[in-house]
């Protein structure tokens, strides 16, 4: 897999998405050792971080009378409201300390615009503002994007779909992800990814 045309994206392996975190993903910590092992199979690894300002529009606490996991209408569409999470430069936004990927080449931060969320590491939730990752990957000769990390049904799925839309071949390593799974979001995410031509594999298929 040490092929210059392939990249592994390790998505949002941050403390706030771990079991003790502000937006805990069940068993999110279980995949840290697996992400480390997978990363050793790739010459090109990119990490991502959800990276919100304290006043971010996706935080329920910034909307009077609103609770986490309610939705609101924003100019770009429906927005899920979340507990305060991954605030820039806080311990909750830091990568899990056991994540051990010394050769990671880049860290892409997303969700930093105060009035726009970004589950996708390619395109923000306004569906117009690019992060620059597609251009960086094209420039470095990448044609296939592999994904692992958190959460399957939000940042991993949205990133996988946008990678397809940007013209990359895309594979999600299912057992190296964990999901939030709200109101059927996990089933919907896999349906959308299958329709878009995202491939779904298990880590054993790579770690032989
Ligand atoms: C995520 C919800 C809010 C994720 C980020 O990383 O999947 N989910 N912000
Ligand atoms: Zn977020």
Automatic annotation (TrEMBL):
Belongs to the isochorismatase family. Its EC number is 3.5.1.19. It is an enzyme of class 3 (hydrolase). It comes from the Bacteria. The gene is pncA. GO terms for molecular function: nicotinamidase activity. Keywords: Hydrolase, Metal-binding, Pyridine nucleotide biosynthesis. Residues 7-202 form the Isochorismatase-like domain. Pathway: Cofactor biosynthesis; nicotinate biosynthesis; nicotinate from nicotinamide: step 1/1. This is nicotinamidase. It comes from Paraburkholderia bengalensis. Gene3D superfamilies: Isochorismatase-like. InterPro entries: Isochorismatase-like_dom, Isochorismatase-like_sf, Isochorismatase_Nicotinamidase.
């Amino acid at each position: 897999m040490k092929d210059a045309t392939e990249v592994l994206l390790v998505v949002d392996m941050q403390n706030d998405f771990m079991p003790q975190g502000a937006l805990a993903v069940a068993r999110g910590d279980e995949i840290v050792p697996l992400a480390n092992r997978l990363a050793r199979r790739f010459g090109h690894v990119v990490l991502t971080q959800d990276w919100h300002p304290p006043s971010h529009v996706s935080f329920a606490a910034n909307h009077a009378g609103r609770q986490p996991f309610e939705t609101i209408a924003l100019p770009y569409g429906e927005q899920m409201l979340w507990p305060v999470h991954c605030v820039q430069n806080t311990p909750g936004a830091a990568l899990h300390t056991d994540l051990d990927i010394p050769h990671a080449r880049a860290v892409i931060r997303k969700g930093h615009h105060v009035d726009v969320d970004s589950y996708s590491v390619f395109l923000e939730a306004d569906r117009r503002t690019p992060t620059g990752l597609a251009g960086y990957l094209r420039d470095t000769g990448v044609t296939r994007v592999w994904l692992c990390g958190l959460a399957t049904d939000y940042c991993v799925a949205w990133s996988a779909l946008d990678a397809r839309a940007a013209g990359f071949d895309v594979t999600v390593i299912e057992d190296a992800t964990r999901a939030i799974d709200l109101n059927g979001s996990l089933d919907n995410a896999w349906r959308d990814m299958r329709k878009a031509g995202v491939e779904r594999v298990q880590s054993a298929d790579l770690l032989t």
